[in-house]
């Protein structure tokens, strides 16, 4: 997935196998900009890294899956809650 982030922002990303409180580095950066200067990668910006702190694991909203067959008395109701890793962006190094 692609995310647009800023320093200090808290976002939920797909579940990672990391400990809460640890630091991670996300290396696949497509675009870096601060005010007047913008660097666009082809496809990635070389040397750019986003540093983040892992806050913990959260669950998303429940999604209801309902299966139904007309005139057959067939009804199945199940749910799903996706797990996410909550991170706080601490620095963007270009």
TrEMBL record:
Pfam families according to UniProt: Ribosomal_L21p
One GO biological process term is:
translation
TM spans (from-to): none
Q: Which UniProt keywords apply?
A: Ribonucleoprotein, Ribosomal protein, RNA-binding, rRNA-binding
Entry's Gene Ontology cellular component terms: cytoplasm; ribonucleoprotein complex; ribosome
Keyword rRNA-binding assigned: yes
Any one GO MF annotation of this record: structural constituent of ribosome
Annotated family: Belongs to the bacterial ribosomal protein bL21 family.
Its quaternary organisation is:
Part of the 50S ribosomal subunit. Contacts protein L20.
Q: What role does this protein play? A: This protein binds to 23S rRNA in the presence of protein L20.
This protein's name:
Large ribosomal subunit protein bL21
- Native source organism of the sequence: Oscillochloris trichoides DG-6
């Amino acid at each position: 997935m692609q995310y647009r982030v800023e320093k200090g922002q808290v976002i939920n990303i797909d579940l990672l196998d990391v400990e809460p409180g640890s630091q991670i580095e996300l290396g696949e950066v497509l675009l870096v900009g601060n005010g007047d200067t913008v660097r666009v990668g082809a496809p990635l910006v070389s040397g750019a890294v986003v540093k983040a702190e892992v806050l913990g694991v959260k669950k998303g909203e429940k999604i209801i899956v309902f299966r139904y067959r007309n005139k057959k008395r067939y009804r199945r109701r199940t749910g799903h809650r996706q797990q996410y890793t909550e991170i706080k962006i601490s620095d963007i190094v270009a």
